[in-house]
Specification:
The relative contact order is 0.18. Helix 4 (about 90-105) runs parallel beside helix 6 (about 130-135). The chain is α/β, with parallel strands linked by helices. Strand 5, helix 4 (about 90-105) and strand 6 form a beta-alpha-beta unit. The protein is built from nine helices and eleven strands. The strands form four sheets. A four-stranded parallel beta sheet has the order 7-6-5-10, covered by helices on one side. Strands 1-8-9 form a three-stranded mixed beta sheet.
Length: about 230
């Protein structure tokens, strides 16, 4: 199953064997949403998703804390495969976030990810889940990480010593993580950190690194880059 997923096309083979061509240090952006020594979290209910997203961010300080005026922003949803929400990020949430980022002054917004090896190409999956259409309707450009280069980042992990991260994290000014809360048969409890796996090279999928330590590998991959 995994082997078929990896090598069912020449493009997949090329992506799997093409590594990073440049290096960078870990990106550990400071989380601006905090009060003294505590990081802030909000939860809201309702029916209007855009209104809910805006309220949730306002409750912890607002989009202004990110300083997005005139900045390029990459939104990283979960597009692990072709199944819709809640397996993948709700496209209406993607649309709402993109619109709010533009309203906060962003100059250009991109929506990008890379699907799991055995789930086919990201472009197809992004279309089938409705995320591509949602992104475009809000004025964002879609990007598929497997079509672009990688940047090698050294980390001090027990299971992972270096991480090949999508170059798109370094091509924009800000990165917004937009995961979906869900269970996973292998990862156990990942606190949405697993969404970052879609921004790392195919060869660093947890089941290829150490399938007996999913959670640890996921955590250590996150040492390479923290979203804004």
């Amino acid at each position: 199953g995994i082997a078929y997923g990896i090598f069912r096309s020449w493009h997949s083979i090329k992506v799997f064997f093409s590594g990073a061509k440049r290096k960078a240090g870990p990106v550990t952006s400071r989380n601006p949403f905090r009060s003294r020594d505590k990081f802030l979290v909000s939860a809201v209910g309702g029916k209007d998703l855009k209104e809910m997203v805006q309220k949730a961010v306002c409750l912890i300080g607002g989009f202004g804390l990110l300083g997005m005026e005139g900045k390029s922003i990459l939104v990283k949803p979960n597009v692990v495969g072709e199944r819709g929400n809640p397996t993948t990020t709700n496209p209406e949430v993607v649309k709402a976030v993109v619109e709010l980022l533009y309203e906060a002054g962003a100059s250009k917004v991109y929506v990008g990810d890379m699907s799991a090896l055995i789930r086919g190409g990201t472009a197809k999956n992004m279309e089938q889940t409705g995320i591509a259409a949602a992104a475009r309707s809000a004025g964002a450009q879609t990007v598929f990480f497997e079509d672009h280069g990688w940047v090698k980042v050294e980390v001090d992990g027990r299971y992972v010593r270096e991480v090949d991260v999508t170059e798109w994290f370094f091509n924009v000014d800000k990165v917004i993580n937009l995961p979906v809360i869900k269970t996973h048969r292998y990862a156990g409890y990942s606190i949405c950190l697993k969404n970052f796996v879609g921004a790392t090279h195919f060869s660093q999928r947890p089941y290829l690194v150490d399938k007996g330590h999913w959670a640890e590998v996921v955590a250590e991959l996150n040492l390479a880059f923290r979203p804004d």
